[in-house]
């Protein structure tokens, strides 16, 4: 665009003005005008064989009108080109901005199960499904516990997995997370033992404790209970290995939706009563999803059905979704 403008004005600086000058026109109804300052030297010079003296020129009314129209068209063209030059980069920048999901972990999952940690496994699944999203992994071991203001403030959805280091998360960071969710609408997804995470409890405003915790189960059969819910889209009933059992009741506010329920099979073959596996709320302006499965010694987050749930949950929790 800049090149187009420079070409335009180079024309104005040379022959364009000469073309506008009525040097070869008859002097009918001639009038004398003081010429404005133009890019030519008008002092006693000859242009196309006509003598120009003391910045004076005789114009017919018809010729002067044509000149003014031409100048108006030139000005309009310059403004149009300038507008296009500034608008195009702005549109390109807007189109290039991706939504951001941050997958946070405290980094205590065993490497034999999750070589790149739980957040790495989840992030790989999200990158395969959410092509239009920027997927970022963060850890409590990173500077500013993985969530500096610059990242947290552009995060659309925050996914959280914690287990042994809940108390090490700084209260200042928790307050920022709660504000981003309740005031700004950032989505929050809490996984398995993150029910005791500071941010989880602050957003729920409750104890967030389960009735009991047992290491006596072998599998968890997860059932889709609300097939029309966005988080359940494309998900069918499935089974995962689960060696840790959370028993109802779960001390949280009544959920707005429970897309998934589950039944544990115990080591002796007995079945545990139905437990809520996926729960949804709105908290302030933000959306909150809790997924109960995901014990760190089991490869839960490599399961294709779980990957689908994670991707669906991110899209559901997106502040822009309805």
Could you describe the 3D structure shown?
The chain has 322 residues and is α/β, with parallel strands linked by helices. The chain folds into 2 domains: 94 residues, no CATH class; 219 residues, Rossmann fold, CATH 3.40.50. It has 8 helices and 15 strands. The strands form 4 sheets. The protein has a 9-stranded mixed beta sheet with strand order 6-5-7-8-15-14-13-10-11. A two-stranded antiparallel sheet has the order 1-4. It has a two-stranded antiparallel sheet with strand order 2-3. Strand 5, helix 4 and strand 6 form a beta-alpha-beta unit. The radius of gyration is 35 Å and the shape is globular. The two termini are 40 Å apart.
List the defining traits of the structure above.
two-stranded antiparallel ribbon, 322 residues, 32% helix, nine-stranded mixed β-sheet, 2 domains, Rossmann fold, alpha/beta
Question: What's this model, at a glance?
Answer:
With 322 residues, the protein is α/β, with parallel strands linked by helices. 32% of the residues lie in helices and 27% in strands. The chain has 2 domains: 2-95, no CATH class; 99-317, 3-Layer(aba) Sandwich (Rossmann fold).
